[in-house]
Design brief:
Number of helices: 15
Helix content: 25-40%
Oligomer: single chain
CATH class of the domain at 89-115 and 217-402: Alpha Beta
CATH topology of the domain at 89-115 and 217-402: Rossmann fold
Strand content: 5-15%
Strand order of the largest sheet: 4-5-13-10-11-12
Order of helices and strands: EEEHEHEHEHEHEHEHHEHEHHEHHEHH
Shape: globular
Largest sheet: 6 strands, mixed
Length: about 425
């Protein structure tokens, strides 16, 4: 199915040809992929996607390319895929009880090939790179993007160059970037400094940029929303709750819902809640104080995946929240790690940034913003093993220097190798 598409600036509305290699408008605004959906039969698309569900092999067995009509118009030989997506939707169990929500679910994007939601955007971004005949790709990263990009570049025969803030990336993620062959450059400065530098490098050296400023990355990430709704038999929840870092995920979710609504596939609009760490909260500050957007100069949070003070997708994310009549909330370091302990103890588990979804859902439920009987889907963005140091530190209660106590710590116990010692430890 051929759907006419083009690039459009989210700030001034100027349009560009879809085949033009650019990341920003002349005015400096970021770009959307726009489609003419006026002649598209939404029910036909929905039926087509249902037919593809459960495919065992091939491009459309991917949980992204199942929805290829709304992802990227690319021939099969240009598509770079690792059968990403197809992640599970879990009932929250005891974590939902703790949050005071009776219908809380979690979409676990940490079950993607490289352990994070980034694979959804990267399969589309890497495929766009192939369309543009790129030989080398690059990104700035707090960890998950670098792991994903290095993997997809290796699979497709491209070189990858990664810019990371020195000393501010979880080892579980850095290990992946190195293992997949990425040329990894640790710079003096934070993520926002790395983001500025990588854009300069890509422009000067003709390298293809694969951060979420790339409009095709957002297109791939829309598939999270499509897949959740398909898993729910197209019954739309009341809320989507999602961590806010560079804000590409919430941007993608909003765009996906807008397209489904325009096509008539859904008629109800769920509210989007973006949850930021209190030490990296520019969208929250803008939202609550009704002030112009202003970056946070020195962001700080144990949730390194969202330790971003100047998110490039803030305009798209704000659009999504406003369109859905949603909200923006912030959570403290203690709230993040306590929520992580409860999510992990429910047998689900995720990296710290992911657990903003649970912490934020609980906070909004406590405030009465989310009704206790409303259906809520939280997004878990990364695997629990992405940041094992945070897990061990919490349960050993050694994060005091970060102002975090192990409220629900499950401390390891050291005992002599005797039956009596085991009995004592087990209380029998």
């Amino acid at each position: 199915m051929k759907i006419e598409s083009y690039l459009q600036c989210v700030r001034c509305g100027k349009t560009y040809d879809i085949g033009e290699l650019r990341y920003n408008c002349d005015c400096g605004g970021i770009l959307d992929v726009k489609r003419d959906l006026s002649q598209v039969d939404g029910e036909f698309l929905k039926a087509l996607w249902e037919q593809r569900w459960g495919m065992k092999r091939g491009i459309e067995s991917s949980g992204v390319w199942r929805y290829r009509e709304l992802i990227l118009d690319a021939p099969d030989d240009k598509i770079v895929t690792r059968q990403e997506g197809n992640t599970r939707l879990y009932a929250a169990g005891s974590a939902g009880t703790w949050a005071g929500l009776s219908n809380l679910y979690f979409k676990h994007e940490g079950e993607n090939p490289t352990g994070s939601f980034k694979d959804r955007g990267m399969t589309c971004g890497a495929s766009a790179a192939k369309l543009f005949n790129a030989k080398t790709v690059a990104c700035a990263s707090t960890g998950n993007t670098s792991a994903s990009m290095a993997s997809y570049a290796a699979v497709s025969g491209m070189k990858s160059v990664i810019f990371i803030p020195e000393g501010k990336i979880a080892y579980g993620k850095l290990a992946q970037a190195l293992a997949y062959g990425g040329i990894t450059l640790q710079i003096e400065g934070n993520f926002d400094d790395a983001m500025t530098l990588v854009q300069q490098v890509c422009k000067e050296l003709g390298i293809y940029l694969l951060n979420s400023i790339n409009p095709f990355r957002i297109e791939g990430q829309k598939a999270i929303t499509f897949e959740i709704l398909q898993q729910l038999d197209w019954q739309v929840p009341d809320w989507f709750v999602i961590p806010g870092g560079n804000l590409g995920n919430s941007s993608a979710m909003g765009k996906a819902l807008m397209e489904l609504h325009e096509l008539g596939i859904i008629t109800k609009i769920p509210k989007i809640a973006v949850i930021q760490a209190s030490g990296a909260n520019p969208l929250y500050t803008m939202w609550t104080e009704h002030t112009p957007y202003q970056a946070v100069k020195n962001p700080e949070t144990i949730a390194t995946a969202i330790k971003i003070g100047n998110p490039v997708s803030w305009e798209k994310s704000l659009r999504a929240v406003e369109w859905s009549k949603g909200t923006v909330e912030q959570v403290t370091e203690q709230e993040i790690m306590d929520a992580k302990a409860k999510l992990d103890a429910a047998g689900i588990g995720a990296e710290p940034a992911s657990c903003c979804s649970l912490a934020g859902a609980k906070k909004l439920a406590d405030k009465g913003v989310i009704g206790k009987d409303e259906t809520v889907v939280g997004i878990l963005t990364g695997n629990i093993l992405k940041d094992p140091d945070a897990v061990i530190g919490y349960h050993k209660d050694t994060l005091g220097d970060k102002g975090i106590r192990g409220t629900f710590a499950n401390r390891p116990q050291q005992i002599p190798p005797t039956l009596e010692a085991v009995k004592k430890a087990l209380g029998v």
